[in-house]
Amino acid sequence: MNLNPSNKTMMAYFIIKGISDVKELQLPIFLLVLLIYLLTLGGNMTIFLLVCFDHHLQTPMYFFLANLSIVDLSSSTITLHKVLLIFISGNNSVSFHDCITQMYLFASITGHELFILVAMSYDRYVAVCNPLRYHSVMTNQICHLLASCCWVLGFLLIIPPLVIVLGFTCYTSNHIDHFFCDMMSLVRLTCSDTSILEILILTEGLILSTLLPFILTFLPYGFIIWTIIKIPTSAGRRKAFYTCSSHLTVVTTLYAILTFQYILPTPVNSADKKFFSLFNTAAIPMLNPLIYSLKNKDVKSALRRWFMKRRI
To answer: 228 to each of 124, 186, 222, 223, 232, how far by Cα in Å?
Structure first.
């Protein structure tokens, strides 16, 4: 296809280049992605089912954890299914509407994940800083309201950029150098005016959808750390920090990857960009259940109870 921007072309479909163009690497990549996805599916479904059916885990903390499991599972399914289908079918094309749908769902789920981590941070703040009022503050109604707001914000904030992308009238190529339909990949291909979209991405995407959740997530930890410092006994400090350690590990890892992926200067090598995207969409959803289960006595106890019931 001619890459001259003057040759304006409306796209009926796009070609997904995938993770690697090297033929010898296709099978190892497929097996690796399949293994990661199965581990993500198994881990997040286990967390979700344990929270739903074990009454010991039916607390605000684990309610939000169940929401995070749905987010992680959805994020992996939205992005990795095309990698697996390309290898199985050999067809790496995707229709324009399917590409836009994937882009919208992935961006929405990512936004929701950042907001649900804010809700989890607020939950930990109340648990550590106001333990006597915890159950009166974090009621079922408040938890469901917070979770609903996270879902609504995630799916609404991406609509304005999506409308602009749908208004693009031409593309210089239909080859997406990625393993899924990412918004920035489409922006790099269009020959339409992207100035309004760039301003919107900076204001809404960076400030409202990323920087604001970042501040609201880590700000409570300032109060949490100050409260922990004032605890007179080392055992009390360890117990207070233990309740936050899993969540803090998850948010630190996620924001570190997002910083390398979107905020720092874009790597020249497209393989680097794909690596960070793959880590964000595949590795983190797989690691989250491990972080919460390995560092959480309640989850491990629930797993033991579940295995005991199966044996009986």
So the answer is: 12, 47, 10, 9, 9
Structure tokens at 58: 């039916």
Measure the CA–CA gap between 87 and 89, rounded to whole angstroms.
Answer: 6
Residue that has been written with the tokens 């479909």 in this structure: 13
Mean pLDDT score, 29-57: 89
- Here the contacts of 293-296 (C-beta below 8 Å, separation 24 or greater) are 293/43, 293/46, 293/47, 295/242, 295/245, 295/246, 295/249, 296/246
Contact criterion met (CB below 8 Å) for 7 and 180: no
pLDDT at 141 over 90: yes
CA terminus-to-terminus distance, the chain: 64
Per-residue tokens: 293: 């289960």
21 closest CA partner among 92, 75, 95: 92
Buried b (16+ CB within 10 A) or exposed e, 82-119: bbeebbeeeebebebeebbebbbbbbbbbbbbbbbbbb
Q: Which of 190, 128, 119 is nearest to 161 (CA)?
A: 190
| Local structure of 58: helix, strand or coil | coil
Sign of CA dihedral 21, 27, 30, 35: negative
Place of tokens 């992935």: 106
Q: Is 265 helix (H, G, I), strand (E, B) or coil?
A: coil
Q: CA-CA distance, 126 to 107, in Å (whole number)?
A: 29
At residue 10, the pLDDT reads 60
Mean pLDDT of the chain: 84
- The SS3 call for residue 9 is strand
In this prediction the pTM is 0.87
- How would you list the strands of the sheet with 13-16, edge to edge? 93-95, 13-16, 175-176
